[in-house]
Design brief:
Strand content: 15-25%
Number of strands: 9
GO molecular function: DNA-binding transcription factor activity; sequence-specific DNA binding
Organism: Murinocardiopsis flavida
Protein name: AraC-like DNA-binding protein
Shape: globular
CATH topology of the largest domain: Jelly Rolls
CATH superfamily of the largest domain: Regulatory protein AraC
Order of helices and strands: EEEEEEEEHEHHHHHHHHH
Keywords: DNA-binding, Transcription, Transcription regulation
CATH architecture of the largest domain: Sandwich
Distance between the termini: 67 Å
Number of helices: 10
Helix content: 40-55%
Radius of gyration: 22 Å
Largest sheet: 9 strands, antiparallel
Structural class: alpha+beta
Domain HTH araC/xylS-type: 174-271
Length: 279
């Protein structure tokens, strides 16, 4: 019996797909994608042919395929390999790079790269895509991964222009905040914030870091937690407060509530009741 397994995720609104898989017997027929394909090997090793040569990707190594790069793939031995791979359409890469894409999209001359930074960025992106991270967090991880790949692995590195002035960043953040503050429960993404600010996705991302020192997703999560905390203080059950504040479920709220405040929503709710009863 084969030990092969795979989990797959696909965006509904843009060319962005991700897979986490373990293959022992599966052998990829020679093929290509109409997207960039970035993968990181987690365990074992896989071998493949690409651009006329054989390559091996072992644990911690990163694979980088340009659009229309023919390649195959199989396990090196019977133990198989586990890896994460993401397929990103060229238009998504261009959108992330913004002004930096004016010089042309990145090209990757080496199908296998050795970089802890790239491997770490890809792991974070995959986990955020395949798990239930917010739309903002997925966009931020995507930007981090694309920028890391374009800056460290490409033959023609491309980077966005330098950060905007603090005054410009303040204007960008103010417009984006209107969206996040008015509907903290809505699953807004960087595209929504960029449209409100009239700037690129990455400009919004950089502006939040420059003004607040945190990512837009952190700002959104904090607003959601404040709303949930207020609702619980008013007597709303934690599960209902989680749904009304934009959390996936009560366990999701519990996890972040404790990380931010050191207690669970239940403890906070009981504390409010005790305080009311002591008057």
């Amino acid at each position: 019996m084969t030990g092969d397994w795979a989990r797959y995720w696909r965006a509904a609104d843009r060319p962005l797909e991700a897979m986490h898989a373990h293959f022992e017997r599966h052998v990829y027929h020679r093929h290509s994608h109409d997207a960039y394909s970035f993968g990181v090997t987690e365990d074992g090793a896989q071998t493949f042919r690409c651009r006329g040569a054989a390559h091996t990707s072992a644990a911690g190594m990163v694979m980088a395929f340009n659009p229309d790069d023919p390649h195959d793939g199989r396990a090196v031995d019977a133990l198989g390999f586990t890896y994460r791979i993401v397929h990103i359409g060229p238009e998504v890469v261009a959108d992330v790079l913004g002004d930096g894409a004016a010089a042309g999209l990145p090209l990757f001359p080496r199908p296998v790269l050795h970089s802890r930074v790239l491997a770490g960025a890809l792991r974070r992106l995959h986990r955020d895509l395949l798990d239930r991270a917010s739309a903002l967090r997925r966009d931020e991880s995507l930007a981090d991964a694309v920028l890391a790949m374009g800056g460290l692995g490409a033959a023609r590195p491309v980077r966005p222009r330098t950060a905007p002035s603090r005054r410009d960043s303040a204007r960008i953040v103010a417009r984006a905040r209107e969206v996040l503050d008015s509907t903290p429960e809505a699953d807004a993404d960087l595209g929504t914030l960029a449209a409100a600010a009239g700037r690129s996705r990455h400009a919004v991302y950089r502006a939040f870091h420059q003004v607040y020192g945190i990512a837009p997703s952190d700002y959104q999560r904090e607003r959601r937690l404040r709303r949930a905390r207020r609702l619980i203080a008013e007597g709303t059950a934690p599960g209902d407060a989680a749904a009304a504040s934009g959390f996936a479920d009560q366990s999701h709220l519990n996890r972040w509530f404790r990380r931010y405040y050191g207690i669970t929503p239940g403890v906070y709710a009981r504390g409010t009741s005790d305080a009311a009863g002591s008057r």
